[in-house]
Amino acid sequence: MTQFAHYPSLKGKTVFITGGASGIGAEITKAFAAQGARMGFVDFDRTTAEALANDTAGDIAFEFCDLRDIDALRAAFAKLAERLGPATILVNNAARDDRHGWQDVTPDYWDERQNTNLRHMFFAIQAVAPGMIAAGGGSIINMSSNSWREAVGGMPAYVTAKAAVEGLTRTMARDLGPHRIRVNTVVPGWVMTERQKTLWATPEALEKHRQGQCLPDLIDPVYLARMVLFLASDDAAMCTANAYMVEAGSI
């Protein structure tokens, strides 16, 4: 059985995460709660989110939010702060990798995909950064994707947004660094969430993907959560403006 690390520096910290109800986000939510953090998350799936909040031990709070609505995001974070205190850790996780052909993309669809996968990340940072500054520092982790590095096709709006996440990380690390706020990117490979298994993880697709990985094992969401915990902890105090790969050596 794998033995994972415990981070004393995370105990009592207030953490906000977007898209924390399922998939990678749920693993991150549970991982922080297990470290003794005060965990607040927003999500669009009310039923799944409420079940996770009820079934997870610890100080955990949920607010419903459609992240495409920035005013709703700000309001949800304000409610979480009232309950848990201002966040000193933010995980920008929410995204949807819906497939789409380049021929069919309209301007409205393109904008909606950027609003779903990128725009809210900046405004989440903008919402929590003043509290982090007041606290003397913090950690922000933005979730990207290895899809653009692998030149994956079939979803150009999603892949473009995920490439832009790394640019957002770099510029915000520079702007917020003087306040001892660290900003990093976590870059997943193909992670075996229930969504991936249901929609796209056919035996043929999995075998082809294994051949492109250095490691033979498929990636469980728990390993993304472990990287996020490290980057949020004091162990990563000198880590900022960088991308941390959890992709089993995919090419």
Write a compact overview of the structure shown.
The chain has 251 residues and is an alpha/beta fold.
Residue share in helix: 40-55%
Task: Quickly give the CATH architecture.
Answer: 3-Layer(aba) Sandwich
Span between termini: 28 Å
Please state the average pLDDT score.
97
- Give me the Rg, rounded: 17 Å
Percent in strands? 15-25%
Q: What is the CATH topology classification name?
A: Rossmann fold
Give the SSE string. EHEHEHEHEHEHHHE
Q: Can you summarize the main beta sheet?
A: 7 strands, parallel
Shape: globular
Residue stretches low in confidence (pLDDT < 50, at least 5 long) are: none
Number of helices: 8
* CATH level 1 class label: Alpha Beta
The CATH superfamily is NAD(P)-binding Rossmann-like Domain
Which class of secondary structure composition applies to the elements?
Answer: alpha/beta
What count of structural domains? 1
Total beta-strand segments: 7
Fold topology:
Layout: E1 14-18, H1 23-34, E2 38-43, H2 46-55, E3 60-64, H3 70-84, E4 89-92, H4 107-135, E5 138-143, H5 156-176, E6 181-188, H6 194-199, H7 203-212, H8 221-232, E7 243-246
Helix pairs in contact: 1-8, 3-4, 4-5
What does this protein structure show overall?
By secondary structure, this protein is of the alpha/beta class. It has a single domain, classed as NAD(P)-binding Rossmann-like Domain (Rossmann fold), CATH 3.40.50.720. The chain is about 45% helix and about 15% strand. The chain has 8 helices and 7 strands. Strands 3-2-1-4-5-6-7 form a 7-stranded parallel sheet, sandwiched between helices. The chain is globular, with a radius of gyration of 17 Å.
